[in-house]
Amino acid sequence: MQILVTGATGFIGNYVIDRLLQLGHEVIASSANAAKAATMPWYPKVKYTAFDFEAFDASADYFSYFGKPDCMVHLAWEGLPNYKSAFHTELNLPRHKALLTNMIENGLSDLTVTGTCFEYGMQEGMLKEDMQVFPANPYAIAKNELRIFLEELAAEKHIHFKWARLFYMYGKGQNPNSLLSQLERAIANGDEQFNMSGGEQVRDFLPVEKVAEYIAAIALQNRTTGVINCCSGIPVSVTQLVEDYLAEKNKTIKLNRGFYPYPDYEPMCFWGDNTKLKTILNNE
């Protein structure tokens, strides 16, 4: 199968491409930065096609431009992790609507797009795909509006559409300001203590390799469509995540809990229901 992956050079994109290649698929990789793409280990194994939203041409046929892929895994999204910027709704949303509409109207029949657990808003507990959503920051609002738009377009055009709603992930290549990246630096620098929040938040974490495996599984089937939580289904506190990481690396450092306030855009305790995902994995 020939699969287009956008956002190819991003944190998740690298791993999704590796997974699809491992499964024997032909990958068309796309990103805005061709020079960065050329440095990636997967570069010689894929067909690379650059794309920059700044140069979008509404009259073009992007389905043909990208080589008429059998399916598309749309990971691209700019401006993260600045979740509160109006950029997401004012620029990203119309840009992504335009590209994906162009792809579908010119022949794309199978689309998987990544969403965010922030679509659920400030709801706590186990979050299920059929729950009402209350996105509370511009990033989540933009993603949710894109999802609703694509659901309607997919129904109108009779295409396969899957929305992989991502939760939390970690691994090599993650944002340097992420929790475990900061912890790694503190250890490497020989710091006596690691400044963090109170650590009592409960989240749903996955290593990025698993996230990529699950995104690929979601994209490569059409039995289960619509919103699919891409998550572990296991509630874990932030403190537990940090302590498990230290134990795995056989490292010690004093945890200075409570140094940072809790983020105001996240509920204290939530995780995903992965029943739909498990159905997909069990049918592979």
TrEMBL record:
UniProt superkingdom: Bacteria
InterPro entries: Epimerase_deHydtase (IPR001509), NAD(P)-bd_dom_sf (IPR036291)
Domain NAD-dependent epimerase/dehydratase: 3-230
Pfam short name (any one): Epimerase
CDD domains linked: SDR_e
Signal peptide segment: none
Family assignment from sequence similarity: Belongs to the NAD(P)-dependent epimerase/dehydratase family.
Name of protein: dTDP-6-deoxy-L-talose 4-dehydrogenase (NAD+)
Organism: Pseudobacter ginsenosidimutans
